[in-house]
Design brief:
The chain is of the alpha+beta class. Helix content is about 30%, strand content about 25%. The chain contains 14 helices and 21 strands. α10 runs antiparallel to α11 and α12 packs across α14. The longest helix is centred in the middle third of the chain and has 25 residues. The two termini are about 35 Å apart.
Length: about 450
Amino acid sequence: MSTTVSGKNGTWRNWGGNVAARPAREVTPASVEELADAVRRAAEDGLKAKPVGTGHSFTSIAATDGVLIRPQLLSGIRDIDRDAMTVTVGAGTQLKRLNMALAREGLSLRNMGDIMEQTVSGATSTGTHGTGRESGSIAAQIKGLELVTADGSVLTCSEKENPDVFAAARIGLGALGVVTAITFAVEPIFLLTAREEPMPFDKVLADFDELWAENEHFEFYWFPHTGNTNTKRNNRSAGPEKPVPQLQGWIEDEFLSNGVFQVAQWVGRAVPGTIPAIARISSKALSARTYTDIPYKVFTSPRRVRFVEMEYAVPREAAVEVLRELRTMVERSGLKVSFPVEVRTAPADDITLSTASGRDSAYIAVHMVKGTPYQAYFTAAERIFTAHEGRPHWGKVHTRDAEYFSGVYPRFGEFTALRDRLDPDRRFQNDYLRRVLGA
């Protein structure tokens, strides 16, 4: 998965290809001091400032016509504290690099999303998550933050230091400052046994609560136009380590899940009438498998087929009803949906604008391959999600605004008040933040 690119004309584009911007200038600071100076210079020049990681958000959360800040030189491990069981890393560190470095130290994050190409600051600032019965998002594992605020000063926060900032800035949307370093909780590296197998959609819905309760990490993909799903259950294991054999892994994770799937998407895009048949074939392409490996090798998978995505968090108890409504909508609408629907869960957390803030949540994600019209499908899906007080992922396509968020986030006012204090002149403002947070 490649990162964002800037063309010769200075145009920045995100990974999904659905967002573009032309910043006035780009900076790549090599130190916190240089970053702080870049923010102060932006203010002197009357420009907004926005950091951008690998551009994996499908919203315009990182887009700016001002100063685009690239944090890749602010990367690497700053400190490992084995007494406190924490690791502090630069904001531009990619999750892949962090996970590999931790594994070499015999350490691991508790939970991960399903890709690891993002920077740690980009992933946490937008609420990136995996699936877990008791372990939450990547941001929920944060123990401390360092950020440069709008006046160019450096602020640190934790549960004990500036706790009001800590409560919000773990998922700060880039609205409170530019994150420069993150301290994560870590634990001794462990093994996970993954059990992946097909399961009928109706059975998954009937047994959803049981599947959630019996597994540390449960998720599944439903293939629209079929009654089929692929399920994945990850649980801690005493071993022995038994990874997927290299050839089998290439066939299943690269050739089938990426190569053949990409070709199927091209065919479906060219001839939409073939999509239901392709979906039936795709849903049966992968056979059951069980393997045991270190966490990041189980949690994450390569994603080389480019797509656009909408994802909403709904109360976990509403998940089954939402999925039934989504299936009915697809069946009755005449839409041809070529991409599977992904379903995950997370426990309630205490982060102000986390999609799981204050409630156990189920995440339901709909996708369309890059270049395919997605608006009709996403609009119909969003209507279902919002009817159940859904909260959209901050980095994925949605149409909600500040008025809506003030109704689904009980602590929304806390966040906007903190923003007024830390960024009164809206140095980190852009069109997206204006829409979702208000002026």
